[in-house]
Amino acid sequence: MRARIQVRHLLFGMLTALLAAAAPLLLSAAETGFAVILDTSQSQPRHVEETTMASVERDYGHAWHAMAAALEENKIGLLGSDFVGLAKEQLSQAIAEQSKSGLKRRYIDHGHQVRVVFYSSDGSAMELHDTVRLEIQLLDGDKVVQHEQGTFHFLALMTPAENSWKVRLLESVSGF
Fold first, then answer.
1. Statement to judge: residues 84 and 103 lie in one domain
2. pLDDT computed for residue 9 by the predictor
3. Which residues of the chain have pLDDT under 70?
4. Residue 11 pLDDT
5. Residue 126 belongs to domain with CATH number
6. Average pLDDT over the chain, rounded to an integer
7. What is residue 176's predicted lDDT score, i.e. its pLDDT?
């Protein structure tokens, strides 16, 4: 009887440790609603450290969440500081144009498979190839006037700033 109780305590302890280790990953997807799986096995010329990998997954997912909210609400301010440079300029322009037309865009995310293909030697830039399954709805008020669902490809350039990674370029491409 005493051995069973000890085994149960041991199993409970292992389960608790597993959940604690997975919590940041689960929270990241839950917070953003955009599940990002990052493959760093082919990064060149530098290997991506675990902490950097976790930060890029979190920050890239958060950037997609911010972009989706900004496009759905037609509010440039919702882009926050996740986008900088050309990416922020292009998204701001797209939001302004769709706002003028009275339309909104809604992204329903079904997951990102992201490969790191370049990570600079000095750690100042990272190129990502993102294959994402999305539903994109064009809305006039609350009415869906166009719906597209499929697999899309994006090339992203991220750079570190302060204590997070920023999207500097996000371009839709035909494939990899």
1. yes
2. 36
3. 1-33
4. 32
5. 3.10.450.50
6. 85
7. 87
Q: What domain count does the chain have?
A: 2
Residue of 174, 169, 157, 11 lying closest to 85 (CA atoms): 169
Give the number of other CB atoms < 10 A from CB of residue 124.
Answer: 9
Q: How much is the pLDDT for 72? A: 95
HEC profile of the chain: CHHHHHHHHHHHHHHHHHHHHHHHHHHHHHHHCCCEEEECCCCCECCCCHHHHHHHHHHHHHHHHHHHHHHHHCCHHHHCCCECHHHHHHHHHHHHHHHHHCEEEEEEEEEEEEEEEEECCCCCCEEEEEEEEEEEEEEECCEEEEEEEEEEEEEEEEEEECCEEEEEEEEEECCC
Assess whether 79 and 166 both reside in one domain.
Answer: yes
- Distance CA(137)–CA(115), nearest Å, equals 26
Are 87 and 23 within one domain? Answer: no
70/135 same-domain check: yes
